[in-house]
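Entry:
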Amino acid sequence: MKLSILTATYNRASLLIRLYASILNNLNSGIDVEWLIMDDGSNDDTEMIISKIRKESKFEIKYLKQVNLGKMQAINNLMNYVTGDLIIECDSDDCFADDAFFNIKSAYEDSKYEKDLYAMCFLKLDQNGKNLGNKFKKEKTTMFDLYFKDSENGEKALVFFTEIRKQYKYEIENNEKFITEASMYHEMDLKYKIRCYNIPILMCEYMEDGYSKNINKIFKNNPFGYLKYFKDILTKHDMVGVPFSKRLYVIKHYILFLTLAKQKGNILENIDGFLNRVLIILLYIPGKIITKIKFNKIK
């Protein structure tokens, strides 16, 4: 069994050293490992640091560089070089927990013959060792059901089966640089499921320049991808069982990105469900006004 670790990075040289150390710490698991790094146009000493690491490394490291196209395109490009049976995407501010590879290996032996799975889903911890979100209530589910029907909010760690993962990519809209990973997950959910394990395999530290702490700026700069994401929820997925609060969340964000993307025309086009259509009609004007007030302040 071979694990491919994919990392898109931009000016995060010091953090890559920590991720590298956590991979080294897991090498006694008995699985093969390759680390594929896409430098998204860094202007720090990332290339020098990775060059030094590669000379001493006990496992395969592939380092590639692209002009600044964003994280999602970086991961898409790295997929061309994957040779592992499993894939995990690790941000530069992630690192592996102790025994992570043992737990991935054990889960793989448990799940590898189930043809309806696209990934194994594990817990993720913050820098203080606290679980991000809740423990899983179901052994088998989809990412859509997990977050929209079971009301999960925290981050999880997905380990993909390469054969399935290679059939998909992050769909970039209007040459934007970011789209939520969930956009691809939800497409995979339409045909496959995930198996859940209440075991942490990743730890993360949210950085000041990271996506999580700059989400409104990201929304404003990447509205078309997010608009497609929320419209897909309202047109492709079964909303039966989705709590009203989550339904309202989707409707509000659909209107938000309609406004940010300056989209006109039929706002109800292909929208499923009478309740969804009524909520969009009722909330469209106030939502548009609130969005303009809030986002006009963001450069």
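The chain is about 40% helix and 20% strand.
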